[in-house]
Amino acid sequence: MAMARSVGTLASLALLPKTDLKGLVERLMGEFTVVGPVPKGKEYVFSPIQSAGDLALDYGTTILPPKKVLHQPFEVLFSFHETEGICEAREPERKQILFGLHACDVYAIQILDRAYTLEYPDPYYGIKRQNTLIIGLNCHQVGPTCFCQSMGTGPGMRQGYDLLLTDLGDQYLVEVGSSSGEALAAALQLFPAPRVMLVEKEKRLDEVRRKFHKRLQTTGLHELLEDNFRHPVWEQLMHQCLACGSCTMVCPTCFCYNVVDKLDLGLKSGKRQREWDSCMLLEYAQVALGHNFRKDRDARIKQRVYHKLVYYEPQFSTIGCVGCGRCISACVKKIDFTETIAILRGE
Q1: Cβ distance 49 to 29 under 8 Å?
Q2: Are 55 and 38 in contact, with CB atoms under 8 Å apart?
Q3: Geometric angle at alpha carbon 259, from 337 and 309, rounded to 5°
Q4: Main-chain dihedrals φ then ψ at residue 29, nearest 5 degrees
Q5: pTM assigned to the model
Q6: Rounded Cα gap, residues 157 and 170, in angstroms
Q7: Burial label, 150 (beta-carbon count in 10 A; 0-12, 13-18, 19+)
Q8: Kind and range of the H or E run holding 234
Q9: Chain segment 245-280, per-residue pLDDT in tens
């Protein structure tokens, strides 16, 4: 790969010719486990790549968010055996890079950081997050269910990344967002770029912003929902929703989990693992002696919507929805809560 002098300050910009992308990724793979968007049928998923050619940076949205790398769907906390004793789970020593994340997913990880590292630090999430670098990718297309622009989480990225790529045609503009990103950029010896390239970046993002069709009006949202807790729309959704939990399973900001002990039939070995859980499932709010605080589906639907749009803010100083649209795409009945909010507004 042809190289020029390296980037030296946090405010630095660099240019990466697309012809050099393969070599850059291969160099990263020599030191890190690189996780990025790869094709899966007609969809895309985040997965560890085996070669630079695996990356599909023209993707729209992945099935599951990159959250699954930091907060795994199934995670063994420890295992035990009659003769070997207790064996705690060990994290890989090799650091990892999340490559090609869009703005909404990076913003969602910042929300998870608050949930898992502030008041009650989670050691399993914390060690993964500490050993993870993020190379973001500004969006250059808009999916049919995307509404990140309404939530202020996209299509352009403002923070949360170590390095940020913007597609400028035959090259990428690279921005440094952290001291770790600065060290990474210096090690990769990227081409310095003039600040005028930021003007071209904004032109590209403006083109993307004009492509949005789905929107969610957030003005007065808190008051709107508080005033419409008994609105007939919730009963309508109760009869429509299957309470399958798909919407929460694909959500990049949902962080609930259950802890389960799994034993062998001889009771000589077993493991304790945590699994993603969902407030949309009937058993979620069931307590001892069988009482269930949210037995009816409309209560569970409201819990999900109100948690994302009302309850999150006093707890984490942000709305809990990033506008990725995965919940709409994953819903068997195509329930779209942007339409629900429009109904509450009388639109």
Answers
A1: yes
A2: yes
A3: 20
A4: -65, -20
A5: 0.93
A6: 21
A7: middle
A8: helix 232-240
A9: 999 999 999 999 999 999 999 889 999 999 999 999
DSSP sequence for 101-114: E-HHHHHHHHHHHH
CA angle in degrees (0–180, nearest 5) for 287-292-293: 105
The span from the CA of 62 to the CA of 35, in Å, is 13
pLDDT reading at 86 higher than 70: yes
CA–CA dist 303, 70 (Å, integer): 25
Q: What are the strands of the beta sheet with 163-167, ordered from one edge? A: 43-48, 33-40, 96-101, 132-137, 163-167, 171-176, 13-17, 191-192
In which band, very low, low, confident or very high, does the pLDDT at 8 lie, cut at 50, 70 and 90? very low
Edge-first strand listing for the sheet containing 74-81: 85-88, 74-81, 269-276, 257-263
Nearest-angstrom CA–CA distance, 93 and 55: 24
The structure tokens listed for 91 are 């994290």
Residue type, 280: M
